[in-house]
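Hi support team,

I submitted a single chain yesterday and got back a structure, but I'm not sure I'm reading the token output correctly. Could someone confirm the output below corresponds to the sequence I sent? I've pasted both exactly as they appear in my results page.

Thanks,
R.
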Amino acid sequence: MSTISKDSLKTSLLQLECHFTWALLKEHVSLEALEETILDHIKFLAKYEIRDYNLLSYVKYLKNSNEEALISLKKAEEAIQKRHPDEIDRRSLVTWGNYAWIYYHMQRYEEAQTYVSKVENSCKKLSSSAHGKIELPEIYAEQGWALLRFGRAYFERAVNCFENGLRSEPNNSDLSAGYATAMYRLKGDVQWYGGERRPCLEALKRAVALNPMDTSVMALLALELQRLDRANEGERYIEEGLQKTPDFPVFLRHAANFYRKAKQVNKAVEILKKALALTPKSVVLHHQLGLCYRSKVLQLKKTRYPRREEIENLMELAIFHFKTAIDKKPVFFSAYSDLAKTYAIDKRYEEAEETFQKVLQRNDLACDEKQDIYFNYGNFHQFDMKSESKAIKYYIECLKLEMDSYPRKRSSEAVKTLLKQKIESGLGDATDFGTLGLVHKLNGNKQEAIEWYEEAIALDPNNEEYLNALTELRLSITS
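Hi R., thanks for writing in. Yes, this is the structure output for that exact sequence:
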């Protein structure tokens, strides 16, 4: 194929609506764990197998398994013929788009061009103005669900996708469920990491009303009601879901989460074990079991005569499940903090330290994820290692990352409390005053920062760091 025609093929490929043009980056996921999730979904929810096989083909491509990617697309085609025999062109657009891209990457350009032409011809049949790109509700749905699978960096885009689809089909239960799920995920994310809060309760209720058999979204409604202190109302939905889909792992996972948060940990463990028997490689289930066993340890430690053997057994179970989650999904960053905290409860401080260091050395942490780990690391030094100086150091590392988030707010409160307690007890020195100046400076409170730096300089008049910071702050106020 000539360079010119190869360039024009690439231009055509970029017009297609498929996983290759939706900017889904492999660094945001663990490909092995995502593949397991998709295969489990196909096994338990066959009605969505077309989009699952399409996504699986993209995951196989990301794993450099192009031949396996083609097999997945063949399965998607078979499912389209079986489920939509009268709408093959319309339902094949994403599948054909993925075929075109995979053949292009395999340097099989004629076959790539064949699939580009198939998409373009189908789009012309469906809409006279379309050229490889067409706005169909089912394509918005497929893109939205794919974005959700790639994690929290994509939640906002997923919400927008489902919103776009709902404009033309407001009563589409799949789009409604996707929109409600994305809103729920985004709200949980915003609560922890900061950003604009958008209520999701009505979206969840609407999705359940449109499809009362969708127990995944029903469970999210229950969890949201629990979050709003309406747990009794929420539990009714969980009980209904257990009646409707007692063997559906996604629902069981959410139900277990509900009972763990309701402090009914034994019930949560029972449900998680059942779900894990159905999907033994599920990373999320291992993580949830780790949280449950750690919770049981903390409950036992509060009793008057805790049984050492039982605590040790539960501790090993918690550690096993957290380590399994990390091994299967190395980008599951909150699991590292959970593992480190569990080691700390067991006074295995070296292993806790190693776990924190291991995750902080990764170069693929998002800013807010790093803040969360620094906050937990500071907590570890403050409460487990009893080292206020190291705690202050890591709380400040969190503050240096400027993104507004819950861990950042908590780091700020923690470091200010530690320093003020020291100063008020008469043990404060110039370093403590200077550090408080830095904390206020990092938080954008310039006047308070100036006052604390002035106090620090009064005790250490020749300290260049404080003098420079003070000069810089005064200039920024007057300029």
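A quick pointer for reading it: Residues 299 and 306 are 9 Å apart (CA to CA). Let us know if anything else looks off.

Best,
Support desk
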